[in-house]
Amino acid sequence: MSGHSKWHNIQGRKNAQDAKRGKIFQKLSREIYMAAKNGGPDPSGNPNLRMVMDKAHANNMPKTNIDRALKKAEGNSDEHYDEITYEGYAPGGVAVFVEALTDNKNRTASSVRVAFTRNGGSLGATGSVAYMFNRKGYIVIDRTTTDADEDQMLLDVMDAGGEDLQTSAEAYEIYTDAKQFAQVRDALEKAGYKLADAELTMIPENTTPVPEDKKEQFDNLVEALEDDDDVQNVYTAASEE
């Protein structure tokens, strides 16, 4: 993970995401519904639900939207979504891993395939790129919210059970084993840190630069996938700019 920073990229895309906030809320509602349906509506006893609700709060999702999704899960709704992943390559040979939550597998498969083929990519078989990514916990602490220096931060991260710390002028980025994510997140919050982001993510073992003449196609592919109502997350092995 050394040298691979997500935070700059996340911040750089914030304005674009703001313009699509309604779509983001819709996707988060689906995640909240499924997490509560599978593990119960109490986030204190359902780590997956707490993580999704933290993500919802970070995206300024209204409480009424969150409550509506929870009530639907507690009710007799027979609504159901399947978790599906898709794998392929973007222009320039960059690996792409897609996570979807859908009530219609055929519709989603068709939409994802079209997004790849129309933008110079190719959809691969299951397992074609998954081995290139590792599931990790990812936590961000904005440096303007803490007085801790890098030495103190490193000590606290190690004490909490974190695996890796990356620092920049803007933020501390912490990576954890996926199974230890909740433990590390809770320990850092207990230590008084305010978390700017905390989620499970997919980190590529190695990255691939996007050729200059393929960047527009690459961006269009990622945007087309992220715009799909059924797609929850898009991960790529593209080198960070």
Automatic annotation (TrEMBL):
<feature type="domain" description="TACO1/YebC-like second and third">
    <location>
        <begin position="81"/>
        <end position="236"/>
    </location>
</feature>
<dbReference type="GO" id="GO:0003677">
    <property type="term" value="F:DNA binding"/>
</dbReference>
<dbReference type="GO" id="GO:0006355">
    <property type="term" value="P:regulation of DNA-templated transcription"/>
</dbReference>
<feature type="region of interest" description="Disordered">
    <location>
        <begin position="1"/>
        <end position="22"/>
    </location>
</feature>
<keyword id="KW-0804">Transcription</keyword>
<dbReference type="InterPro" id="IPR017856">
    <property type="entry name" value="Integrase-like_N"/>
</dbReference>
<dbReference type="InterPro" id="IPR002876">
    <property type="entry name" value="Transcrip_reg_TACO1-like"/>
</dbReference>
<dbReference type="Pfam" id="PF20772">
    <property type="entry name" value="TACO1_YebC_N"/>
</dbReference>
<dbReference type="InterPro" id="IPR048300">
    <property type="entry name" value="TACO1_YebC-like_2nd/3rd_dom"/>
</dbReference>
<comment type="similarity">
    <text>Belongs to the TACO1 family.</text>
</comment>
<protein>
    <recommendedName>
        <fullName>Probable transcriptional regulatory protein DS834_00345</fullName>
    </recommendedName>
</protein>
<keyword id="KW-0238">DNA-binding</keyword>
<dbReference type="InterPro" id="IPR029072">
    <property type="entry name" value="YebC-like"/>
</dbReference>
<dbReference type="GO" id="GO:0005829">
    <property type="term" value="C:cytosol"/>
</dbReference>
<keyword id="KW-0805">Transcription regulation</keyword>
<dbReference type="InterPro" id="IPR049083">
    <property type="entry name" value="TACO1_YebC_N"/>
</dbReference>
<dbReference type="InterPro" id="IPR026564">
    <property type="entry name" value="Transcrip_reg_TACO1-like_dom3"/>
</dbReference>
<feature type="domain" description="TACO1/YebC-like N-terminal">
    <location>
        <begin position="5"/>
        <end position="75"/>
    </location>
</feature>
<keyword id="KW-0963">Cytoplasm</keyword>
<dbReference type="Pfam" id="PF01709">
    <property type="entry name" value="Transcrip_reg"/>
</dbReference>
